Amino acid sequence: MRKRATAKQVAEAAGVSKWTVIRAFTPGASIAEESKRRVLESAAALNYTPNLLARSLATNSTRQVAVFVDDFANPQKLPFLETLTEQLQAADLVAVLININNHFNHVHALLHADQRQVDAVILFGTAFRDETLSDPQLGHGTPPMFVLARDSQIEGVPAVVCDAELALREIVDHLHARGYRRPGFMTGAPALSTALRRRQHFTEFWEQKGVHRIELLSAEKYSAEAGARGVRDYLAGTSAEDRIDVLMCENDILALGAMDEMRGKFGLNVPKDMAVVGFDNYELGGSSAFGLTTYEQPRQEMVEVIIRMISGELEPETVTLPGKLVVRSST
Fold first, then answer.
1. d(CA 295, CA 309)
2. pLDDT tens digit string along 265-306?
3. Which of 81, 96, 178, 267 is the most exposed place for a label (fewest CB within 10 A)?
């Protein structure tokens, strides 16, 4: 294998000191233009690139951000991850993706992230327990944490979220105006401390309109299969005259699975027999096969805010941003 060129070799080729080479590759460092030109030309000739890990020892920053994810079955994660990694890289940061699962829990993930000396941790779709922070395996120097796209009730851990209260008010106002009066709500995976508050607001706004019975359906996890199973269990155990007339699903993936099951196995017409609403504005939901009414999160703005917090441009604090109701044929 070819050995990497070193800063010392570049310095010798350019006729400068090793420290001049280091300054040439350090943004904002003081260096004469002529010296910088000779260094960059010699570096290009030797195919030299600076060692970022070595630089991190001097700067006390690895420019790495750990991203914890635990629900990969939810395809809506991909557009968020695309936006997140794109904006991290634009800010000269790099994502370290960590899969939270039965074999690698949050404690292991935090230890792993700390050993890599990441600059921050983003909890993205993870059921994080606040008591995890008191685990004896963890030291006092764990990297700062942020929650993306979920509420955080963990002291000292800010969240950047879509405004759930505004979103559910707009959704319920829309459904009520369309004449629906027997609503149901399908929850996804239990979310512990980072629980979504969509169900709570959905219930509150219906109660304000005089509707006090909200049928609860559980899907246990975020997947189309789980959404189909949740609505199957409900429809099989409920007579046609007693059924809800509109189902709000905690996200689009549940809604798509539920719609498939309603139409395919039970022969229901959406929205005539039962209307369906999702959340996230997943691309497939906008197809003519589904026409799913949903709520679009401000993905670009949410990611931008969390990166500015990590970079120190904004004070770390919980931020809620407005989204947009997208009305289609399912309601």
1. 25
2. 999 999 999 999 999 999 999 999 999 999 999 999 999 999
3. 267
pTM for the model? 0.80
Is the CB of residue 295 less than 8 Å from the CB of residue 283? no
- In 67-80, which positions are buried (b, 16+ CB within 10 angstroms) versus exposed (e)? bbbbbeebbbbeeb
Tell whether 177 and 237 lie within a shared domain.
Answer: yes
Please report how many Cα atoms fall inside a 13 Å half-sphere around the Cα of residue 62, on the Cβ side: 17
User: Do residue 177 and residue 234 come from a single domain?
Assistant: yes
Residue 11 domain-assigned (yes or no): yes
CA distances from 165 to 157, 171, 196, 240 (A): 20, 10, 11, 31
For residue 132, the 8-state DSSP code is G
Domain region containing 27: 7-50
Same domain as 217, residue 133: no
In terms of Cα–Cα distance, which of 162, 193, 300, 272 is closest to 171? 162
Structure tokens at 64: 């790495």
Q: Using CA atoms, how far apart are residues 214 and 181, in angstroms rounded to an integer?
A: 10
Q: Can you tell me whether residue 184 is helix, strand or coil?
A: strand
Count of structural domains, the chain: 3
CB 281 within 8 A of CB 295: yes
